Amino acid sequence: MTPTLRNEIRRLALILVAALILSLLIDSIWPAFIAMLGCVIFSTRQLIRLSRWLITYERTQSAPPESKGAWGDLFDRLYHLLRREKSARHELEFLMTRAESSITALRDAIVVVDRQGRLEYWNRAADKLLGFKAPHDKQQTLTNLIRDPRFAHYLKEGSFDHPLTLPSPADEHRMLEFTITRFGAGDWLVIVRDVTRLHNLEQMRKDFVGNVSHELKTPLTVLKGYLETLMDSVPAEQKRIHRALLQMNQQSQRMEALINDLLLLARLEGTEPDLDTERLALAPMLRRLRQDGLAMATDKQQEIQLEVAPGAALLGNPAELHSAFANLVTNAVKYTPAGGKISIRWWEDASGGHLAVSDNGVGIDAEHIPRLTERFYRPDASRVTQTGGTGLGLAIVKHVLLRHDATLTIQSQPERGSTFTCHFPDHRLASEDTVASA
Ligand code: ADP
């Protein structure tokens, strides 16, 4: 309680007590009655003044009516409160205007979508990049305006760790990159960048690699054909020529493997993943891969164990998955010395399906592991000549997994061995048990 209010109450109490005593002394109700009436009239008048002032304040911003005592104090406090609120509001408005004008000036499109997927706000760049039209499109569903099935699929999946690149709904020659962040109570912030230039450059690179590899195929086939004929026709006594032809043949085979891998990578990068998937039974495929692994290096006498449930199956592209798993098994055979142990294991748990290829071979230093899936990245150049790899195997594995919503983890210790594990999400599983319980 403020001192002014305390004084006011004291004064009022004094007046009322004095009026009461006077009433008792002269034995009449009038002094008390007049005092109380005076108090009521005074308070009502002040209330009317307060209410009038408040009604006109919004319009006139005038100072409060002159008043003394507790009422004057109340008017002043209210006045300060209103002024403070007004300046806070101005500050907020200023900040909002600045934020809005900076968002409007952005070259990236910013779209705010509510939890029902309806458009709440978008900036000017969104008009240009996505073809939104205000106010017509307000409250429209985002998937109604961006009708690409890949976008609907991306939203349905709900994992926004990686951005999505799509042609603009307003101009199919413009490539856009969508990044989605959730905020508030299930709302989404969609940021859209124009990546046409980057996309075109990337496309040029892919086309170039693809075209060069394709163009090299024919001359190489001719060379290989002649080499084989020459090897057959040169007498075995001409050892030097024979050795040279043998090496030329080996190198041409490497070149062929390289071209095939480059073409496969170009195809994996350049085409959209199949939305219509096939059911791939894993047990027979992994059994074949085990046999191929054993046949690859009969002289090494390696042991390859296989663990897979008979009904295990995956949804995806069988050829791509076969090529990814074959790369892992081939690597395990290549990088495990004679007598080594390799295991291929498939299992399913609450987080999905997993295929692990382990070996107790040469292993890899931890510093190289994050870069292994880059094209031509080799921790140890001397291994290449020994193993004859193309340096593209793990890049192919990574791309195939990406196209199947799967990931690759690598655990390895030098001289102890390595484990390469492919992790598939639930919706890619088609094992008999899963199908039966679905
Ligand atoms: P490469 O054709 O050289 O085998 P990859 O892309 O398949 O190309 O593998 C990249 C590199 O990763 C290899 O050069 C090798 O050093 C390493 N690597 C792959 N698999 C294994 C493994 N099982 N054990 C040890 N090192 C491996």
Overview of this protein structure:
This protein is of the alpha+beta class and 438 residues long. It is 54% helix and 17% strand. The protein folds into four domains: 3-102; 106-194, PAS domain (Beta-Lactamase, 2-Layer Sandwich); 208-270; 278-437, Heat Shock Protein 90 (2-Layer Sandwich). The protein has helices at residues 3-25, 30-60, 69-105, 124-130, 142-145, 149-157, 196-233, 239-270, 282-296, 318-334, 381-387, 393-403, 432-437, and strands spanning 109-113, 119-122, 164-167, 175-183, 187-194, 278-281, 303-307, 313-316, 341-349, 352-359, 407-413, 417-424. The strands form three sheets. Strands 2-1-5-4-3 form a five-stranded antiparallel β-sheet, sandwiched between helices. Strands 7-9-10-12-11 form a five-stranded mixed β-sheet. A two-stranded antiparallel ribbon has the order 6-8. A hairpin with a 5-residue loop joins strand 1 (109-113) and strand 2. Helix 1 packs antiparallel against helix 3 and helix 8 packs parallel to helix 12. It starts with a helix and ends with a helix. The site of adenosine-5'-diphosphate has 23 residues, from helix 10, helix 11 and helix 12. Adenosine-5'-diphosphate binds at residues 327, 331-332, 335, 359, 361-364, 372, 378-380, 383-384, 389-395, 418.
